[in-house]
Amino acid sequence: MEVGSCCGKADGERPASVSDLQEEGKNAINSPMSPALADVHPEDTQLEENEERTMIDPTSKEDPKFKELVKVLLDWINDVLVEERIIVKQLEEDLYDGQVLQKLLEKLAGCKLNVAEVTQSEIGQKQKLQTVLEAVHDLLRPRGWALRWSVDSIHGKNLVAILHLLVSLAMHFRAPIRLPEHVTVQVVVVRKREGLLHSSHISEELTTTTGMMMGRFERDAFDTLFDHAPDKLSVVKKSLITFVNKHLNKLNLEVTELETQFADGVYLVLLMGLLEDYFVPLHNFYLTPESFDQKVHNVSFAFELMLDGGLKKPKARPEDVVNLDLKSTLRVLYNLFTKYKNVE
Question: What's residue 119's pLDDT?
Fold first, then answer.
């Protein structure tokens, strides 16, 4: 992506062919066949023969859902990396060299990648990026994800490729975030053929529905119960209600509706304290949560307590429990039931 970077800054210092090429680029992009692209930079139009460059149409960048997607992903990355004292402000500028992606993957996957810590050269950056992306691919390929990015596209600060990568990671690691659904952007593709620049527009889908994105994960017994054995579902619910009340009754609490009474996370937190036999300090969670975020905080905190207790990370997302998704709530409670059913 450093094409033309050695050219001087003043127009007079540039070779005439480069100036002509810039003009060609602007004409190609602003031709009647294509909507005007206001923020084309000269380096975006300095292409080799048959080379192509892609960029998001400025109107798509102003779309509220697109802005929300970028913000949610930025906030998520910064939350994950808070202990590393890394603050990401701009996805394409901060992630292209592989340094932040390495830290993010190591934190999410609980692994350590064998790469150099700091690499200044482009070759070194691409080698690091290659190692990081290979580790990502090893995680995602078995799940059937379409890998819509490459070393060159990420290192080239292609925001669409970076967003595809982050959305896939967020879904794979069941990030405690809610991605906006049906985010689509218009991408301008500029390609040089026979010395002339040609531009075209394509639509790129960044997110579908949460259900479809989460549907990439393997089905389990609860999918089967809901789809094929609804009669047995009531038996499972009754068993889980008996199990949770056996413990919650110690605090004079009682559950009658699984889908609603665990949605704010309070009972989940208290239940973990009872099962593991410790008192949960009240300042760690909201005893009377009012907002969606406070409820998500409670459920996320309960999930942390589960991990501390040696349980696997729940398949459900905190947001799904808060949104009264019965299947998600049952998965969480059944996870507890299988480990603690003999606890008095």
Answer: 66
Question: Which of 91, 8, 19, 102 minimizes the C-alpha distance to 56?
Answer: 91
Question: 3-state DSSP call for residue 186?
Answer: strand
Give the whole-angstrom CA distance, residue 139 versus residue 142.
7
Q: What is the structure's pLDDT at 216?
A: 44
Q: pTM of the full predicted structure? A: 0.54
pLDDT at 76: 94
SS3 199: strand
**What whole-number distance in Å separates Cα of residue 161 and Cα of residue 56?**
11
| C-beta separation of 45 from 25 below 8 A | yes
Please report, for the chain, how many H helices and E strands are present, in that order. Answer: 16, 3
Helix (H) or strand (E) holding 145: none
Contacts of 175 (CB under 8 A, 6+ apart): 76, 169, 317
**d(Cα 71, Cα 227) in Å, to the nearest integer?**
36
Nearest to 160 by CA among 62, 70, 30, 64: 70
Cβ–Cβ < 8 Å for 124, 116: yes
Provide the edge-to-edge strand list for the sheet that holds 196-205: 52-56, 184-193, 196-205
H or E segment to which residue 205 belongs: strand 196-205
Terminal CA-CA length for the chain: 63
- 213 pLDDT higher than 50: yes
| pLDDT tens string 11-28 | 444 444 445 545 544 444
Bridge partner list, 202: 187
- pLDDT bin (cut points 50, 70, 90) of residue 38 is very low
Q: For residues 301 and 265, is the Cβ–Cβ distance under 8 A? A: yes
- State CA 255 to chain mean position distance: 34
| 169: Cβ contacts below 8 Å, ≥ 6 apart | 104, 105, 108, 136, 175
